[in-house]
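Reviewers of the previous submission asked for a worked example of the structure-prediction workflow described in the proposal, so we include one complete record here. The input consisted solely of the amino acid sequence. No template or homolog information was supplied to the procedure at any stage.
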Amino acid sequence: MRPSAARYDSIAAKERTISEYDSLKAKVDELQNAVEQFTKQKTKESSVAKKAVSFGQGVENWWTKDHVSIMNNSYSVGLFLSAVCLCTLVGVNPTFAAGVAGVLVGGKPVAGALKALAKKLP
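From that input alone, the workflow returned the following structure tokens.
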């Protein structure tokens, strides 16, 4: 059975996102290396400045392209952590609290994943 076109599109989108994160990570590594070389007085300040600007442009491009998704994910993470903290404060087992919070934030997909996981556990 062939996967649907939607599945291929989803996989391609995920691969593009990973590629963008890899590119941003490479800019972080370049900046980190430039700063290290500068502190050892092996490179000039202008080289570090160029790397810093390149990293800044990478972050700005990422934000411009995907700011709605970034904010939605940030909101979900904040909501998840708040729910886990609240459950833990009232004495709920932290593992169970994470499951409850995951279902509250993630909805049906998370609930389905947790059910599937529970079936695989001994």
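The chain has four helices and no strands. We consider this example representative of the routine output the project will generate in years two and three.
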